[in-house]
Amino acid sequence: MKKSIPWILFAVFALEAAVALRPRGEKDFHFRAFGELPVLLNGRVQPLDSVARNSLLQIRSAQAVPLEGNGADGSWGEWNELRKNPKAAPFSERKWWQFSKHPRKLKPSAWLLEVMTNPDLADERPVFLVHHPELLSQLKLEEKGVENSGLRYYTFNEIRSVWPEVEKQAQQIRGIEPEAQTALQKQVAKLENALILYHRLKNSLQPEGTKDFSAQIAQFQKAITPGIAAVRAQSAGKDYDKEAFERLLGLLGPYDLMANLAYPFLVPPAQPEVSRDNWTQIGLSLMETARSGELHPAVSSFAALATAYRQGKVDEFNFAVENYRAWLTEKFVPELKKGERESFFNNYSPFYRAMLIYIVAFLLGCASWFGWSETWRRSAVYLVSLALVIHTTALLFRMFLEGRPPVTNLYSSAIFIGWGAAVLGLVLERIFRDGVGAVVASFVGFVTLIIAHNLALGGDTMEMLRAVLDTNFWLATHVTTVTLGYASTFVAGFLATIYILRGVFTRTLSEATAKALARMVYGIVCFATLFSFVGTILGGIWADQSWGRFWGWDPKENGALIIVIWNAMILHARWGGMVRERGLMNMAIFGNIVTSFSWFGVNMLGIGLHSYGFMDAAFKWLMLFVGSQVLLIALGLLPMEKWSSRQSLRAAAPVGAAVS
Amino acid sequence: MIHKLVNFFTSLRLTVVCLALAMLLVFIGTLAQVDEGLYAAQNRYFRSFLIYWTPKGATWGLPILPGGYLVGSVLIVNLIAAHIKRFTFTKKKLGIFLTHVGLIMLLIGGLLTDLFQVESHMRLTEGQAKNYSESGLQSELVFIDKSKPDADEVIAIPQSLLAQKGEIRHSRLPFTIRVKDYFVNSWPRPRAPMVETNAPQTTQGAGRQIYFDERESTAKMSDQNVPSAIIEILSEKVSEGTWAVSNWAVDESLLLFLQRKGKWSDSLLQKLSATQVVSSQGRSFEIALRPVRYYEPYSIELKQFTHDRYKGTEVPKNFASDIRLRHSLTGEDRSAHIRMNAPLRYAGKTYYQAGFDQVDPRVTILQVVRNPSRLVPYISCSVMALGLVVQFLMHLIPFAKKSAGKISGGKAQQVPPPRRTLPRTDKIAGGVAANGEAKHLEPTSTRRST
Fold it and tell me: How many angstroms separate the CA atoms of A469 and A463, rounded?
C-alpha cells in the first residue's frame, strides 16, 4: 500500500488535469464559441474571451461574476431576488465555510456579451470594486453593494449617480505622477478607469440600449440611398428630401459615437491581402457603409447574434455565431485559430493548475523529513514532475501563441523563474534524493506562480512589445539567461532557508544533510554566478547595439550587476575561508533580497529606460519578503546551543562560522 | 612593512571588501538616481574617488565612502598583485585565470570608455542635412565671423566659464565679454510692453521684448536644463550694449514647444530666434548660446523617417530613418537605413535610432556615440565568459556525477566521480539516511576526474 501511494496521488492529479483538457459541451447559449471569436485590441489579435477577462480584471480584479450570495438575514439567492427583500441588505458573497453553497457564476465571455448587447441586465451585476474606506464614505456607498472579505463590489446602477463626482476627483489627480499619488487617489483613478472601460464596452458592438440591432441596420441600409441623395442636394443648394436627410443623420449619430467609444476592434480588415492589421470598429464600418452602400459581413453577423441574444433566442444566437465562424474560415483562418487557442489556454488556466499541484507537492516534501520518508518524498517528486510538465507545456504554448521567447514582461519573467527553479530543484533531487530538491522546486514554483497570478491583475499579459524590445534574438539570449540567473539565486536562497529552518526548529538536520545542503548551495551559487554574469554581459551588448553604450548605470542594469557581485562575493568569501557552512547559508539568503531588489525593486523606482511596470501594491510585499529574509538571517546567526538540531550536527566540525 | 603591504594587497579579504563596497555603491547610486538624476548620480558615486556627505548649509563635506574610481582601482591592483604572487599556471586554474584577466580588461576598458567616450545627438527633419551633432548637456557661447570667404570662423566660450560670471577676453575677439547673468536653467516669457514697468533685460536684440527667468536646475531624465546668459560687450571699456543669449533661441524642439503652447505669436517667436549680431571696431560677429557642436567632414541628410504604432495604441512598433551620407573629402555618397537595434557605424562613430518628436512626425533623433574603446568590453567579456564556462564545466561534471559524498571545501580536488546509474540502490533508507548510505556506494574503479 505504502508503495502505491505516490502513484495513486500522481494518477489522481494527472487524471484531473487530463479530463479538464476536454471542454464540456454547451447546451444553452454557446458562450465559449462566442468567446473564441477573434478581435483586435492592444495592437494584437485576441479572442473576445481575453478581452472579457482583462476587462473584468481591470473593473473587478477577478475573472468571474458570482450571481448568488447571502443576505444579511441569512437568506441565500440571486442578487435580484435578494433585493426584493428589504431585510436582506447588505449582501455578501459566499463565505469560505459555506461548503454546501455553490453560487452560479457568470463566465467572462457571457458577461462581456451581456454588457455589449443587454446593458440593462449587466447594469445589475455587482462588478465595480471599491475598497478604500475613505472613498466609500465620501461617495456614501457604505450601505450598498456586495461584500466579500472586506472588499465591496457595486453594480453600475448603484454607482451611476456618483460617476460625475468620481470624474471630477479624477480630473484633479491627472496631473500628479503615479509615484506621488496616495492610495485614495489611486483608487479614484482606478474607479474612473473602470467606469470608462465599462462605458466603452457597452458601445463596442451596438449603440447602447439598442433592442434590435439587425432591424436597425436594415432600416439604415434602406435610408442610405435617399439620404445620400438628399445630402448631396442640400450641399448643392437644391431642394432636398428633408425627411430622408434627417433619417440618415439620425441613424448615423449613434454610429459616430460608437466610433469614438468602441473598445475592441471587432471588424476584420476588408482587404486582408493588403494588411492583416487593419481591423476596424463597427461604428466606423457602418459610416463606411453609408459611403459605399456595402455592409461588412462581420457587422451583420454581430448584429444578428446581438439581436438573438437580446431576445433570448438560443438557436438563432448559436447559428449566428457558427455562421460568422464559417465566414471567418474563408480568409481569416490564422486569426480564428489564434482565438480558439488563446481562449482554450485561458479556460484551462494551466499555471493555476500547476500552482495547486506545487503546493501539495511542497507539503508532501516537508512531510518526508518527519516520517514515512520515502513514500512522501516520492509522492512529492512525482507531483512536482507533473506540475513541471504542465508548467513547461503551458510555457511553450504561450511562446507559440505570442511567437516570442519565454520572457517578454514582468509577468512572464515570474513564470520563467518558477520554471527554472523547478527544473534546478528536480535536478538536485535526482542527485541527492533527500526531498530537499523537491521542496525547493515546489516552493519556488508555487510562489512565483502566485506572483505571476497577481501581476496578471494588471491586464493583458501578452501585450505587444515596444520597438526597442522587439528583437527575438536578444529576448531569447539576454533575457532568458538573466532570468535563469535570478531563478538559480533564489534556489540557492531557499536551499539555505531549508538548512536554517530545519536546523533551528527541528532535529532533522543531520550532519550529512547539512553537508549535502552546503554542496547544493555552493553548486547553485556557481551556476547563478555564471548565468547572471553571462546574462548581464549580453544585456550590455544589446544596450551597446540599441542605445549606443555598453553600460549606462541604468537601474535594471545595476540590479543585475549587484546580483553578479553578490554571487562573486559568496564564492570569494568561501574560497578565502571567511565563511563556512552557516555563513554560506546566510549569504545565500541575503542573495534572495538582492535578487528581489533587482527583479522588482528597481521597477518601483519608476526611472530609467527599463522601467516597464510601476507597481505599488507590490512594494508592500517586497518589504515583507525582505523582512522575512532578514529574520531568517538572524535565525542563522543564533548560537549553536539554540539550534534544535545541535545534537545531530555535533558530529560535524565546529560549525560556528564567522560571517563577515 | 613591505611584507605587510604585499599581504594586504594580495589578500582575498580585500577582494571581498572591495566587492562589498562596489555592491553598496551600485545600490546607493541607483537609488540616488531618483532624486539626483542619472548624470549627477553617476558623477557622484561612480566617477569619483570619495563620496562626501555635506550637512545642510555647510560648505565642507565629510568623506564617507570610497567612490567608484577608488574601489575599481584597488580591485585592479588587488587582482594583478594576487595573480603575480600566487599564480602558478595549471590546467585546473585556467578558468579562474581567464575570468580574472577578462575582469582586469573590463575594468580598464570601463575607465577608458569613461575618459574618451563622447555622446551627442543629431536632430533632423526630413530633407534636412547636418554635418555636426550636438551635446545634450554642454552649451557654449559662440561668436561667428562670417566675413571670411571660404569658411566661417567660430570662437567658442565654454559654459563653465560663463558660470563664473565676470569678464572674459579672447585673443581673437576685439572686445571684452562681461557676463552679467548666467542661468543654468531658464524660462522665457514675453515682456508685455504696457504692463511691465521694470527695465528690459537688455539694450539689444531679443532681450528687449523677452524676459528670461531663472529656474531651478533639473536632474530628471525626462526634463532638460535650458541655459541662458545676459552678456555685455565692451570695446575699450566702452559698452556696445547688452544681449540675452539662450538655448531657447536656437533649439528647434524648444521653439516648437513654445509655438504649441499658444501664448507665443509668430512674430514674437521670430524675435526670439532672430540672429543677433555684435559689431565692434568694424567687425561683426553673430552670437549665440548653443549646445556644443561636434563637426564632421561628412554630412547626413534625412530622406525619410518612418514611425509605426500598433493599431489602436500609442505603443511604438518600429521607427527607422532613411539617410543619405555624403563625405566632402572622399566624395563618398551613399544611403543608409538606421533603425532600432540596427545602427550605422561610420568613421569611428555609431549612429543609433534614439527617438522621435512627440508632435512632428518628420523628425528623427539620432544618438551619436564616439567610443574608441568600444570593443574592449566585447573582448574582455568574451574572455571572462569563456573562463567561467571552463571553470564551471570543470566543477559541474564531477558535481553532477558525484552523488553525495565528502565536501572538499569547494576546491578542485574532487573525489573520483562515482557512476550513478542505479538509483534504486539507496531506496532502502531514503531521505536523510540516503546521504549516509551514499558514501559507501562510491565505486573505486572509475577514472579520475580532470
Answer: 12
Residue type, A299: V
What integer best gives the mean pLDDT of chain A? Answer: 87
Do A156 and A56 share a structural domain? Answer: yes
Shared-domain flag, residues B261 and B332: no
Same-domain status, B354 and B428:
no
Q: Are residues B54 and B160 in the same domain?
A: no
Q: Are residues A590 and A506 in the same domain?
A: yes
Residues B309, B422: one domain?
A: no
Inter-chain residue contact B352 with A548, CB threshold 8 Å? yes
Residue B420: domain span: 404-450
Q: Which residues on adjacent β-strands are paired with residue B322?
A: B304, B337
Greater pLDDT, B389 or A281: A281
pTM assigned to the model: 0.84
Q: What is the ipTM of this complex?
A: 0.82
Nearest to A572 among B15, B38, B396 (CB): B15
| Domain that includes residue A321, residue range | 213-339
| Interface contact A433-B426, CB threshold 8 A | yes
Put simply, the answer to whether A574 touches B410 (Cβ < 8 Å) is: yes
For residue A149, give the nearest of A44, A69, A245, A47 by alpha carbon: A69
Looking at the domain assignment, is residue A525 inside a domain?
A: yes
With CB atoms and an 8 Å threshold, state whether B27 touches A42: no
Residue B432 lies in a domain: yes
Q: Which amino acid is at B274?
A: A
Does an H or E element contain B346, and which?
strand B344-346
> Which range, A183-187, B21-25, B46-50, B411-415, is most confident?
B21-25
Hey, how many other C-beta atoms are within 10 angstroms of the C-beta on A82?
Answer: 22
Q: What is the pLDDT of residues B82-108, one digit of tens each?
A: 888 876 777 778 888 888 899 889 888
User: How many residue contacts between A and B have a Cβ separation below 8 Å?
Assistant: 214
Residue A95 and residue A143 share a domain? yes
In angstroms, rounded to a whole number, what is the distance separating the alpha carbons of residues A356 and A341?
23
Hey, CA dihedral for A326, A330, A332, A333, is it positive or negative? positive
Q: Are residues B143 and B289 in the same domain?
A: yes
pLDDT in tens, A252-273: 888 998 988 999 999 999 888 8
Tell me: do B284 and B168 sit in the same domain: yes
Does the beta carbon of B15 lie under 8 angstroms from any beta carbon of chain A? yes
* Number of domain units in chain A: 3
Say whether both A125 and A222 belong to one domain.
no
| CB pair distance less than 8 Å for B319 and A467 | yes
A165 in the same domain as A237: no
Domain annotation covers residue A196? no
Tell me, yes or no, whether B103 lies in a domain.
no
pLDDT bucket at B221, cuts 50 / 70 / 90: low
Whether B368 is covered by a domain: the verdict is yes
| Surface of B (17-56) touching A: CB under 8 A | 19-20, 22-23, 26-27, 29-31, 33-34, 38, 41-42, 46
The answer to the question of residue B21 being in a domain is yes
A525 and A623 belong to one structural domain: yes
The string of DSSP letters for B145-199 reads E--SSSS-EEEEEEHHHHHT-EEEE-TTSSSEEEEEEEESEEEEEE--TTT--SP
How many structural domains does chain B have? 4
Between A619 and B362, name the one with better pLDDT: B362
Task: Give the pLDDT mean for A441-463.
Answer: 88
Among the partner residues B33, B392, B435, nearest to A512 by beta-carbon distance: B435
Q: Which of B15, B16, B33 sits opposite A555 (nearest CB)?
A: B33
Same domain as A73, residue A139: yes
Interface probe, candidates B7, B44, B96, B341, chain A, greatest A C-beta count within 10 A = B341
For the ranges A476-485, B254-263, B413-422, the lowest mean pLDDT is seen at: B413-422
The CA-atom distances, in angstroms, between A79 and each of A76, A82, A112, A162, A309 are 9, 5, 19, 21, 22
CA of B396 vs chain A CAs: smallest distance (Å)? 8
